[in-house]
Amino acid sequence: MAGARPGGPAVSASLLEVRGLSRWFGGLAAVQGFEIAVAEGQIVGLIGPNGAGKTTIFNLLSGTLRPSAGEVRLAGASIVGRAPEAIARLGLARTFQDLRLFRRLTARENVVVAAFCRAPNSLVSWTFPRHQKGLAGFARQAEELLEFVGLTDKAGDLAMYLSHGQQRRLEVARALATGPRLLLLDEPAGGLGRMESEIMTRLIQRIRASGVTLVLIEHNMHFLMPLVDRVAVMNFGRKIAEGTPAAIREDPEVVAAYLGTAQARARA
Amino acid sequence: MLAESSHRWPWLLLLAVAVVGPPLTGEPYVAHLMVLGSLSALLAVGLNVALGFAGLFSFAQGAFYGIGAYVSALLVLSSGAGFWTAFLAAGVAAGLAGLLLGLLTIRLGGHYLAIATFAFQEIVIVVIRNWDSVTKGPLGLSGVPGPAPLALPGLPPLEFQSELAYYYLALAVLVLAVAVSWRLRTSQIGLELLAVRDDEVAARAMGVRAVQLKIFAFSASAVLAGLAGSLFAHYVKNVSPESFAVATSFAVLVSVLVGGLGTIMGPVLGGIALTFLPEYLRVFQEHRFTIYGALLIVVVIALPGGVAGGLQTLARRWRARAQAARP
Amino acid sequence: MTLVLFVQHLANGLITGGLYALVAIGLSLIYGVLRIINFAHGEIFAVGAYVGFFLWRVLGVPLPLAFVGAMVGTAAMGVAAERLVFRPLRFADPLNSMISAIGLSFLLQNLILQVGGAEPRRLDPFMSGVLLVGPIALPLQYLFILGLAGVLIAAIEVYLRRAWNGLALRASSQDLGTAALMGVSIDRLARVTFAAASALAAAAGVLVGSVFLLQPTMGVSMAAKCFVVVILGGVGNLPGAIVGGLVLGVAESLAVAYVSTALRDVVAFVVLIVALLFRPQGLLRGA
Questions:
Q1: Is residue C196, in this structure, part of any structural domain at all?
Q2: Is residue C56 within 8 Å of residue C63, measured between CB atoms?
């Protein structure tokens, strides 16, 4: 059934394939008929005005929210209706726009707990004496990831005491610890200064180089456009355009959507 | 938090005091209080697994304690089962009750669990009070026998007749429970539970099996309460519903909060301290619970992190100042 | 004759159920508006009963006036409790407000014990006599209680629907932050909510005292039953609390009549389990 659409991208190579994804709250459609295909190794940007449904899409893909309708395939397997923890185990990880770290755990513990994603079920294994030794491997991976995002010297600090920029990077390290094939980053540069944005840019480039496919939500176009291969534009819960960054900049509907909101903001 | 596990000597010291202290005083009454203190500590260690590790609002610890006590006493009285069988059965029965309640409510979120456990607590007591044909109603069961002497190979049989001997039995169970709770806290499961406590949505998105883990933690806390209930029944020899009423659940909650939510030793110390404290506050006997209630409100408003949390904050400040003073 | 008996049991059940509803509405209201699980609500109900008893027995106030006095006095106490115990914790961890509520329930229960004594007390019935409907004899007192409960619940509905109050309460049931943005004073909202909930609980307390007995611990089992009612009706759902209360009251009454008197309190347990199993969102979800 996949790949039969004429003119569509080569779907068989897609790591993520989304069709007709919709979510209603009461009678209100937060997301309606969203479609996208992301090939392995790509970086795709997801942009749109506030309230356009971008974060809702992440929630639907990661299982945090149940879709009202639609199909989501990760590496060919349907993941719609699966629990978030099962989806994470299948190789889809995410960060949160509003920074949902484990506040009262240390930076290291935040990453270790996510790395356990690839350990056997703890409910079964915790009674075995050898279990404790097996955990050392995860602790080592956590150290490597903390180094990767530049937080080695903060490893022992509680997450709540880290700076905003450090918390953003810890979110990334935590998501990477689950060993994802597809990583969804929700406003990774949100609230970051220029220096920290540049650090994040390099981080994302290195993540891609390591073979992880990425989808990014971002408001900051200067940050986003140079990073991504393709951009999908959302407005009022629907995808209104998709293409290369250059093509999107010229798209009249996109310009209208952004101009419209800019005017509305100016009026308010 | 992990730092707590890095020093062993305070624990060993504490254990040494617990073993040697009561016989040194020579007072059976001290041993008696230590039995009750150990049972309170056992209940608190159990609640701490649910509330401190997993962030589950459970107000039914007294009910699980009661289920354990009655199951154990009834088994021995009616079927002639031995103490050890009854002891284990008490843990299993309370655990199953916890599992059932957990399966029904934990999916629904923290506030549902709080409401459901509160209702469960009261209803269990009412059932015990009114099910005359089995529980003998408000008067309760009397003549519950103590444990038979335990014959271990190569040792003289262990008797549990005196307060002191029973205290060592309770202490042994308590030490075991602390060891299990420590093992939980420092292993994968403990870290996962703490993550769920801090942010369940994020934890699940990172692959943590939150629902299973929470049901497990809740059931485990009920098992410990059930074991404590059995030890209680065969110690006091008379079980009546009032010992397991909602006030007991609240007292357990208070000892966990005072001792330090989520720590390993805090609940133990809290449980023992709150058993001894009223003995030294006999002046207030009549108004004890009034003061208790008022203190609870004041502590929560003035020290939102609990007494132990307040002390930790003070310690952190003191350390920071000491560091700042260094050149 | 069996039909007559059945109607009699039904009527008994509706009385108890109406009293459950009066208390449960307050519990549900406080949770729905302020997201506080008020573990002390049972004690507020008990305080109401004892205030009524005190006014009537000690001060010699006529029973109807004592009833009103208990509602007013307990509402004032509820407002004070909100101000002193819950407001400081409004934006703190929910565990803190639960513990605070537990502290308050300890405090109130023991104050009642110290002031009112441990022995059970009793109020005079509001009216005597029976109404004969064919072969069925209904005590006027029961009809009066059911009618009064209905009137009070209707009055609260009107009160809550009135102009800005009604709007604000419904808006904030969704989200306190949004309500604050809409210019609703949360402090005033909290005051109104606690006053209404406490007055209803006090009314139930005095009515219970005129049919059954007053005891210092009467609040605990009432609270437990009402938590079951709240779950049954849907947490935060007011019509649900009424229906839930009546269902539990009737179920208890029929179980006692047709199965065994020992079952009265087991019914609440069974209802709790069944509700959690099949309708965890409440009987009236979406209503």
A1: yes
A2: yes
Write the burial class of residue C124 (CB in 10 Å: 0-12 exposed, 13-18 middle, 19+ buried).
Answer: exposed
* Chain B residues inside the 8 Å CB shell of A99: none
- Per-residue pLDDT band for A261 (boundaries 50, 70, 90) equals low
Cα separation, A139 vs C224, in Å, equals 46
Considering the domain boundaries, does residue B285 fall inside one? no
Only one residue has tokens 């981080």, namely A203
CATH 3.40.50.300 residue spans of chain A: 14-91+184-192+200-268
pLDDT score at A249: 83
Structural contact between residues B253 and B94, judged by C-beta atoms closer than 8 angstroms: no
Looking at chain A, which residue has its C-alpha nearest residue B192? A113
Contact C88/B289, CB-based, under 8 Å? no
CA nearest B202: which of A98, A187, A125, A56? A98
Say which residues have a Cβ less than 8 Å from residue C100's Cβ, sequence separation at least 6. B296, B297, B300, B301, C85, C86, C89
- What tokens were used for C23? 């208390």
CATH value at residue C7 = 1.10.3470
**Domain membership flag for residue B153:** yes
Instruction: Say if C283 falls within a structural domain.
Output: no
Is residue C149 a part of any domain in this protein?
yes
Contacts of residue A20, defined as CB under 8 A and 6 or more positions apart, other chains included, come to A33, A34, A35, A69, A70, A71
Task: Label the pairing between strands A77-78 and A69-74.
Answer: antiparallel
Query: Where would I find the H helices in chain C?
Result: 2-34, 41-53, 63-81, 94-116, 140-161, 163-174, 176-181, 186-211, 218-233, 238-258, 264-278
State how many domains chain B has.
1
For the record, the structure tokens of B242 come out as 């009032």
pLDDT score of C12 more than 70:
yes
Q: Using the beta-carbon criterion (under 8 Å), do B294 and C102 form an inter-chain contact?
A: no
Rounded-to-integer distance, Cα B215 and Cα A239, Å: 40
> Which chains, if any, share at least 3 CB pairs under 8 A with chain B?
A, C
Quick one: residue C112, left, alpha or beta (phi over 0 = left, psi -120 to 50 = alpha)? Answer: alpha
The answer to whether A105 touches B1, Cβ cutoff 8 Å, is yes
May I ask the CATH class of domain A14-91+184-192+200-268? Answer: alpha beta
d(CA B63, CA B76): 20
Four-residue CA torsion sign, C181, C185, C190, C196: negative
The answer to whether the Cβ–Cβ distance between B192 and A178 falls below 8 Å is no
The tens digit of pLDDT for each residue in A193-220 reads 888 899 999 999 999 999 999 999 988 8
pLDDT digits (tens, 9 = 90+) for C97-153: 888 888 898 889 888 888 888 788 888 777 777 777 777 777 888 888 888 888 988
Q: Domain span at residue C58? A: 2-278
Tokens describing residue C259: 């199965």
Chain B nearest-CA distance from A19, in A, is 22
- Confirm whether B12 is domain-assigned: yes
What CATH number does residue B41 fall under?
1.10.3470
Core vs surface per residue B132-163: b (16+ CB within 10 A) or e:
eeebbeeebbeebebbeeeeeeeeeeeebeeb
| A42-78 pLDDT per residue, tens | 999 999 888 888 899 999 999 999 999 999 999 989 9
**What is the average pLDDT score of chain B?**
83
- Contact state of B216 with A132 under an 8 Å Cβ cutoff: no
- Containing structural domain, residue B68: 2-280
Strand, coil or helix: A32 = strand
d(CA A183, CA A208): 10
| Residue C286 included in any domain | no
Neighboring chain B residues of C34 at a CB cutoff of 8 Å: none
Which chain B residues touch C if contact means CB-CB below 8 Å?
Answer: 51, 57, 59, 104-105, 107-108, 110-112, 114-116, 118-124, 126-127, 130-133, 245-247, 250, 253, 257, 286-287, 289-290, 292-297, 300-301, 304
**Mean pLDDT over residues B147-171, rounded?**
80
